[in-house]
Amino acid sequence: MVKAGIIGATGYAGAELVRILLGHKEVEIQWYGSRSYIEEKYARVYRNMFQLVEDSCLDDNIAELAKQVDVIFTATPQGFLAGVLTEEILQHTKVVDLSADYRLKDVGVYEAWYQIHHKSPQFLDEAVYGLCEINREQVKQARLVANPGCYTTCSILTAYPLVKEGLIDPDTLIVDAKSGTSGAGRGAKLPNLFCEVNENIKAYGVASHRHTPEIEEQLGYAAGKPVTINFTPHLVPMNRGILATEYASLKEVWRPGGRVAYPDAAQVREVYQKYYGKEYFIRILEDGVCPETKWVEGSNFVDIGFQIDKRTGRIILMGAIDNLVKGAAGQAVQNMNLMFGFPEQEGLCLVPVFP
């Protein structure tokens, strides 16, 4: 059995890690780390764990934890792991970080967007960006994985094949995304109170959201050049889910007979099948079917659909995920499975919950 420790176990992503790992055949949770609830029974913090978890919460002493477990999940605010990670820790254990501390390779970009001084940039080159469907082989060899953000997971996977194959102009890409309130975390914040969120939808982080450079960096690797996008997130009154609607200009491609024209739906679908046809967790929907968050809730699936607008020469891409599963804890477990050689679906064959 692989022994796992979770720091940040009482946040929403940490709690989702607990839920998933309790159903994992190869993992035993040794450490429920929570600075806010030290020595308090975990099942008192999350009553759904009554008679399922008997342990009490411990502190966030990662150096001590590293000596006791094989893998550490850090579901912590930005800056925590970067402030405590050492070579000695990584010599003892593997780490999957759910924060943004090691997602961006350019420390200057990280510090500019997150307004935090990065205290361990020496690990940036080593850290593997844990988007499993794209970086699977690198993840298998990693001892430090940067688990992607929720918005970024949905946005990147939805557009990646078309950027990689040059079917769209990535610099025309506009990502309009909506998220449930759990994406903002469990802390008490005025904008997330029921009366503020209910019967309301609002944009936030307009032209300034911190996931923007992450999306640009990863799509830039696919395009083979720097990419600049517009990304606008919105908060909607639901618990879980992200829906990303993305717009981009199609690029002309060669057709049989030497003609140059925009790609058609069959070519787009062929490209998606090329990259995702064998991916269990990515579902390319039938023509005319649009993704909905309710059909992925509670699961590690990504649902993707598209529609070509011949009138404007643009394509509309749509992706849906559960922000706490594929957008956080589920993807972290998927990364762990790869790191330890387990079947990638182990613990993650979660049927979407409905209603």
Low-confidence stretches: none
- Ends apart, CA distance between termini: 35 Å
In N-to-C order, the SSE pattern is EHEHHEHHEHEHEHEHEHEEEEHEEEH
Q: Structural class from helices and strands?
A: alpha/beta
Radius of gyration: 20 Å
Range of helix content = 25-40%
CATH topology of the largest domain: Dihydrodipicolinate Reductase, domain 2
CATH superfamily of the largest domain, by name, is: Dihydrodipicolinate Reductase, domain 2
**What is the CATH top level name of the largest domain?**
Alpha Beta
- Lateral arrangement of strands in the main beta sheet: 8-9-7-10-15-14-13
Classify the beta-strand content into a percent band: 15-25%
Domain count: the total is 2
Question: What's the number of helices?
Answer: 12
Please summarize the sheet with the most strands: 7 strands, mixed
How are the SSEs placed, and which strands pair?
Elements: E1 2-7, H1 12-21, E2 27-33, H2 42-45, H3 62-66, E3 71-74, H4 80-84, H5 87-92, E4 94-97, H6 107-114, E5 128-129, H7 132-140, E6 144-146, H8 150-164, E7 174-179, H9 194-197, E8 202-203, H10 212-223, E9 230-235, E10 242-249, E11 253-254, E12 260-261, H11 265-276, E13 282-284, E14 302-309, E15 314-321, H12 325-340
Parallel strand pairs: 1-2, 1-3, 3-4, 4-6, 5-6, 7-9, 13-14
Antiparallel strand pairs: 7-10, 8-9, 10-15, 11-12, 14-15
Helix pairs in contact: 1-12, 7-12, 8-10
